[in-house]
Amino acid sequence: MFAETITITRAQAQTVWDHSRLFSEPPAGLLAAIAWESGGDDEITSVMVWETPAARGDFAAERMLPLYDAGILGEAHGHPERVTPVQVYLGAASSDSKVSA
To answer: What's the sign of the alpha-carbon dihedral 65, 80, 34, 71?
Structure first.
């Protein structure tokens, strides 16, 4: 398992989500993706949980790097930080597991 978190502005997060299709077409190996308002200044914090580091790497190579190369994303969009979970429980996915605010 590989988990990461990032905190960026809502506009930056929306750009990433829209162009990477993270929520609209979840990539292979993504177990969970959760985003929430994390305080003032329009901040969004997200956590993504991947089956393996390789699954995360494939997502980066296939969907994120082309966005940087095209100039759609840049330094302002932040860099995810790997986290080391102490405990994890992920229930079985269901067809209605996607929730949007």
So the answer is: negative
Amino acid present at 27: P
pTM of the model: 0.82
Average of per-residue pLDDT values in the chain: 88
Task: Report CA Rg, the chain.
Answer: 13
CATH number at residue 24: 3.30.70.100
Q: H or E element: which one contains 34?
A: strand 30-37
Reported as a single tens digit per residue, the pLDDT across 87-100 is 888 887 665 555 55
Count of the separate structural domains present in the chain:
1
Tell me which residue has tokens 């089956």.
51
